[in-house]
Amino acid sequence: MNWITDHKIPLGQWIEMMVDWLISNAAGFFDAISYSLEWLILGLTGLLLQCPPMLVVAFLAGLAYWLHRSVGLVIFIVLSLLLIANLGYWEEMIETVVLVLMATFLCILFGIPLGIFAAHYPRFHIAIRPVLDLMQTVPTFVYLIPTLILFGLGVVPGLISTIIFAIAAPIRLTALGISNVPEELLEAGKAFGATRWKLLFRVELPAAMPSIMAGVTQCIMLALSMVVISALVGADGLGKPVVRALNTVNISQGFEAGLAIVLVAIILDRLCKQRETKDVNP
To answer: Which of 49, 131, 170, 200 has the maximum number of C-beta atoms within 10 A of its C-beta?
Structure first.
C-alpha cells in the first residue's frame, strides 16, 4: 500500500488554495455579507430584548392558540418560557431563537425554490443529491473552519454553518412533495387551462404543503442542533453556557442550559406543525 500513500491526492491543499484565493480576491464581498447579517441579527435581538418578557410570553401564547386552538399547548408554552426566565436564560433564549429563525428563513428562501426546481428537472435533482448528502454528513467542524476564516469570529460564521447544515431538509422534502402530487390533479389543472405558474401555485404547492412544512420543521430542529457548535465560533445564545459548563464541568449549568434548548425546540416544533383537523362524517 506504500505506492498509494506515496502518491497522496492533495485535496486538503486544493481546498486551502481555494479559500486563500477567496480571501485575496473577495474579502470585501464576504465582509459586506458579514456586516449585513450581523447588523440584522443584532438589531432584531436588541429589539426583542427591549420588549417586556411577559409581553413576549403573551404574544407566543396567543399565537399558539390562534394556530392550534389548544389550551394545553398554550399552558405548556407559558410554563416553559417562565421556567427559562426563572433559570436566568431569557436573554440567551432570545439570541438563540433569533439565530434559528434567521437561519430557517434563509434556508426556506433558497431551499424551497431549489426543491421546486429539482422536482421539475430530475437531472438537476440527481446532480445536487451528492452535494446535499455531503452537506449533511461532513462533520460540522470541517466547514466551520473556512466559514470562520471568511466571515470572522462572531455570530455570522455560526449562521452560515447552520444554513449549510440545515438547508438540505427543505430542498429534499419540497422536491419530494412536488414530485408526489397526484397526476390526476395536474391533469385537471391543465384541462382547465392553468398556466405553468398557476399550476405551481394553485395545485402543486397546496398539495405538497404538508411535506414542505415537514421540511421547515426539520430545518428548525437541525438549526437548533447547531446552537452549541455556533457558540464555539463566538455566536451568542444558549450554546455559550453549555460550552462554559463543559469547560468547567458544571453539571447544574449544563443541565439547565440544555433543558432550555430542549424547551425552545419543543415550542418551535409545536408552533410550526400544521393544525390537525378531524374529518366529520355526516
So the answer is: 170
Could you read off the pLDDT of 147-167 as tens digits, one per residue?
Answer: 888 887 778 888 888 888 889
CA–CA dist 35, 38 (Å, integer) = 5
Q: How many CB atoms lie within 10 A of CB 201?
A: 12
Residue type, 153: L
pTM for the whole structure = 0.84
Q: For the purposes of burial, counting CB atoms within 10 Å of the CB of 53, is it exposed (0-12), middle (13-18) or buried (19 or more)?
A: middle
* Dihedral Cα 184, 185, 187, 188, nearest 10 deg: 110
Residues 222-238: tens digit of each pLDDT: 888 887 778 887 778 88
Please, what's the largest Cα pairwise distance for the chain?
77
